[in-house]
Design brief:
The chain has 169 residues and is mostly beta strands. The chain has one domain (4-165). Helices cover 2% and strands 41% of the residues. The protein is built from 1 helix and 11 strands; from the N terminus they run E-E-E-E-E-H-E-E-E-E-E-E. The chain has one helix at residues 74-77; strands at residues 4-5, 30-35, 39-47, 57-61, 68-71, 83-87, 96-108, 118-121, 128-129, 137-143, 154-165. Strands 1, 2, 3, 4, 5, 6, 7, 8, 9, 10 and 11 form an 11-stranded antiparallel β-sheet that branches. The chain is globular, with a radius of gyration of 15 Å. The relative contact order is 0.20.
């Protein structure tokens, strides 16, 4: 089922899962939406980035006039403290869309990812894993299913404003 507008979402706003070809909502806008399977979630409207697919983890910055989104890797994110969001569609370069920042999100994960897995970046852009990677732990997010649920190469994750931090050992 598609997402429907939540309590603070103005009428007429596009819903997560759709790709926009113009910036029809200001970048950085945060809204709530509801899905009968995933429940209520919170989303941020961001510019797309090349090769993004549903569930990719992205890093974003909201510098006025220079907002940016990049697909997360353990090279780009290590010890960066950057904010993380999860793509709700194939929001590629030159497009805009909603990225999930709170609730039960879909994430692209590596083979062997387990339920309740702690999240870490990998060398593959946008893909997360539960294998420890020093300097690249995703805080405020935790696996909520094993790989393959809801689809191949995906898992549900529970998140609330996730960000990158170096792993504390």
């Amino acid at each position: 089922m598609p997402w429907i507008s939540g309590a603070n979402t103005p009428l007429g706003y596009p819903v997560p899962g759709f790709v926009e070809t113009s910036e029809i909502v200001p970048v950085g806008t945060v809204c709530k939406f509801f899905d009968p399977v995933q429940g209520e979630g919170e989303f941020i409207f961001l510019p797309g980035v090349a090769s993004t697919v549903l569930g990719n983890a992205v890093e974003y910055t909201l510098t006025p006039g220079a907002e940016a989104t990049i697909r997360h890797t353990n090279a780009t994110g290590s010890n960066s403290g950057r904010a993380i969001a999860f793509a709700t569609a194939a929001t590629v370069a030159g497009t805009w869309g909603w990225y999930q920042i709170a609730g039960c999100a879909i994430a692209t994960v590596a083979a062997g990812f387990v339920n309740n897995g702690v999240l870490f970046g990998t060398a593959t852009a946008g893909v997360l894993d539960d294998a420890a990677d020093a300097g690249d732990q995703i805080l405020n997010a935790l696996g909520a299913s094993a790989v393959g649920t809801p689809a191949a190469n995906q898992a549900y994750v529970t998140c609330r404003y996730p960000f990158v931090q170096g792993q504390i050992t």
